[in-house]
Amino acid sequence: MAEWNELSTEQQQEVERQWAILRSGASEVVPEDALKQKIADSIAEGRPLNVKLGMDPSAPDIHLGHTVVLHKLRQFQECGHRVQLIIGDFTGRIGDPTGKSETRKQLSEEDVRRNAETYRKQIYKILDPVLTEVHFNSKWLAPLTFADVVGLAAKTTVARMLERDDFQKRYTGGQAIHIHEFFYPLMQGYDSVALHTDVELGGTDQTFNLLMGRTLQKEYGMPAQVAMTMPLLEGLDGVNKMSKSLGNYIGIDEEPREIFGKAMSIPDELMLKFYGLATDISPAELEALSAGLREGWIHPRDAKMNLAHTLVRLYHGEQAAAEAKRYFVTVFQERALPADIPDAVLRRSELGENGAIRVVRLLVALGLAPSNGEARRSIQGGAVKLNEVKVEDLLAEVVPADGDVIQVGKRSMVRIRLL
What we know:
The protein is of the alpha/beta class. Helix content is about 45%, strand content about 15%. The protein contains 17 helices and 13 strands. The protein has helices spanning about 10-25, 30-45, 65-80, 110-125, 140, 145-155, 160, 165-170, 180-195, 205-220, 255-265, 270-280, 285-295, 300-315, 320-335, 360-365, 370-380, and strands spanning about 30, 50-55, 80-85, 130-135, 200-205, 225-230, 345, 355-360, 385, 390, 395-400, 405-410, 410-419. The strands form 3 sheets. Strands 1-6-5-2-3-4 form a 6-stranded mixed sheet, with helices on both faces. It has a 5-stranded mixed sheet with strand order 7-13-12-9-10, with helices on one face. β12 (about 405-410) and β13 (about 410-419) form a beta hairpin. α1 (about 10-25) packs across α2, α9 crosses α10 (about 205-220) and α11 (about 255-265) packs antiparallel against α14 (about 300-315).
């Protein structure tokens, strides 16, 4: 362990520099002083820290909520440290019970592998691949014998497991907790044992799992990792944690126009939080933006437009961001149809003898609705327009012409091409 007075002045300054960067924005660091000590040891010994993030591939797409932790990992990399990204192909078969009111459906091995590959393609939009190790935890978990598993389970108690808020609520509410669910935090903690992790990151809802890593490392006679939690990012509804299942998310692999349009719907009161947690804005820039909004010399609309542009730039580049902004301004601020509306083929065989087709069927035929039921809901919600005229009759028939423009909602529109 490096003693502070044994470090040179330059090394002490580097410790303080890294500490300020890495501690900023985190909700909690457990224990606080241990992170600074690990940084000092890393500098004194000339070795990078092993910084871990576990991701269970239960859904194939990364959204902005995931990127809060990924951006912090990128900061660790910029300080010279190494990221251990754990794809939970083994733990994913159980599913993290965190925040769940019932037992999660177990994923098949095929589902896990397919989703994991999608994750791997997306993470390098943020992380440096040279400083990223990707591990599948089946490598060390699958070979464990039943005796090994019993020994692992003996290192904690049922009472400790029931300290978890979600387990406690289910237990007191008389809802089932299956034994295999207790093994999830044990397996996540064992990942840290297998990889000799120095620091593990996660959202604030992962605190219990991260601390289990510390517990198990001590039990196995190795230095305990530091647990660092990051704030959870609310979704577009402004209330719930961003989640694909709730539909309140912005996916980093979505089309640029979709990202831009969704970002413009972020509640004003959450705008600064999105800037701070989901972009590459510096603390000084964030403070200046906050002051400008507070004092009135920056308009919220302009700040949100810049936020939308920044999010598209981060994941699709500057050119795509500029185009997405032009599209949004043209369609939603100037109320004009863009010049580059995509074509959608409508075959004449879909039309009746009089050349007409019900709008419900038309939406499905053009791929603007996945089903007749969804098409009806779009019409009932006032979201459907044909050549800028709203369609309100569920039974309406139209005679489409080549070049007609049909629109559903704010961001989905096509130009009909008859064949």
